[in-house]
Amino acid sequence: MAPKFTKRELEGHEPTRPGSPGQDVLLIHGPGQQYRLTSQQEIPSLNSPSEILVKVIAIGLNPIDWKGPDFNFGLPSLPWINGRDMAGVVVKAHKRLRRIRVGDVVLSPSTDYRDIRKAAFQEFSISSEHNAARVPRDMPIQSSAVMGVAYVTAAITLGICFGLDFSTIGSYFRAPNLLHLLQEVDPNALATDVRDECLNGIEELDRVKAGDWIAIWGASSATGMIALQLAKLCGLRVIGVADVARHGDKLLQAGADLLVDRHDTDRAVAIIRGVTKGSLRFGLDTVGKDTATRLQECLSTTAEDGRKSHLAGLTGVPKVPTDNVVLHKVPIKTFHDVPQVGECLMVLLEKLLVARKLLPPEVETAMGGLNGINEALDLLRKGTISGKRVVVPLDTSIERATITI
Ligand SMILES: NC(=O)c1ccc[n+]([C@@H]2O[C@H](COP(=O)([O-])OP(=O)(O)OC[C@H]3O[C@@H](n4cnc5c(N)ncnc54)[C@H](OP(=O)(O)O)[C@@H]3O)[C@@H](O)[C@H]2O)c1
């Protein structure tokens, strides 16, 4: 049987070639500044047996890569290395690791942005076994590089904030029930700012289940598209709010049950309320505070049967809460802080990708390697890339490769 996952020869990927001058990295020196290519920087070292060193092959760009420097957040000190998504070949790993080996091609979302060793904008980056997924043999590396953060965000929002039990995807997947898993973790392993969300964010009675409606405002975003697919795999009914003319076709293909155009928000609220007739209890907003506020208006507020509604906002929640609507912020750091959470999400991702049950976002390839990232981020900044993820290959052999999935 052909191997399921991609492997690469290490030749040409070793971090410590004789006379090696270190690595190239992209440094940000201050808010509002461009990233600067800097050579001869130290290659990061492994700090624990669960860590792996990855030679980066392709970098996926996220909105935060330009928003952080422009609006001065997510920069723990200066100068700093940014970058949240990448795929590459594992060049160092402890022999005792069970799933990941040297030579595996992996994708790795870097949610632990305070650890500069794990940033993506460098030639070599650190990850952990529980934060890396092997890339299927027939999947382009470019596609794998762009989906990690979006997948983790979508899975944690659905699985922790809304209590979706992924084991309902099907027996083959042995997928996690994240809320039950968290109950078994030492509470001290959970950061204090997310502990309450993880342990008490939603009552057992309230948890989302097959047949329930969920509305995703900003469904065409990478996170929205992945949340839509995960929700459909678990039998939810999904309403997607998006530019329907632009993105309707792909959202229908991903399984959306109802599409609502985003341009007239009053009408969008009226349509969602009309169709769900007061039964909508789950909303995910990927756009911002204003749209999250509109989404809140669509949710049931009666709690007649004792069940509340739940709204998660990726970039902001409504200023004024409504009775019986619980507002959630996504406890994304559980992905790296709690190895059990990271591991089961990465194993599930591998299985979904191998089975082609989860389609990655469409990609647009930007040239120039690390040096091309400033220009590529301008495309995101200006909003000229719509419904696609930008990928920046560092390996010139895949720079111009055709992408098919
Ligand atoms: N809190 C967290 O942990 C976390 C994690 C990941 C991401 N985020 C944040 O979540 C947001 C989404 O991230 P992403 O990477 O998934 O985004 P993305 O892939 O860059 O997508 C942005 C999408 O939003 C759509 N959009 C823009 N304005 C809209 C509106 N008013 N109504 C509906 N859709 C609209 C755009 O479509 P058109 O313009 O073509 O209509 C585009 O498809 C970003 O702000 C990101 O920083 C937060």
From TrEMBL:
Point to the regions of Basic and acidic residues compositional bias. 1-16
InterPro entries per the UniProt record, alphabetical: ADH-like_C, ADH-like_N, GroES-like_sf, NAD(P)-bd_dom_sf, Trans-enoyl_RdTase-like
Q: Where would one find the signal peptide in this protein?
A: none
Keywords of the record: Oxidoreductase
The Alcohol dehydrogenase-like N-terminal domain extends over 49-107
Enumerate the GO terms in the molecular function aspect: oxidoreductase activity, acting on NAD(P)H
Q: In its keyword annotation, does this UniProt entry include Ubl conjugation?
A: no
Q: Which residues form the Alcohol dehydrogenase-like C-terminal domain?
A: 223-333
Region Disordered: list its residue ranges.
1-23
A Pfam family assignment: ADH_zinc_N
Record keyword Transport present = no
Domain of life, per UniProt, equals Eukaryota
Subunit:
Monomer.
Q: So what family is this one in?
A: Belongs to the zinc-containing alcohol dehydrogenase family.
The protein, known as? Oxidoreductase
Q: Which lineage ranks, top first, belong to the organism behind this chain?
A: Eukaryota, Fungi, Dikarya, Ascomycota, Pezizomycotina
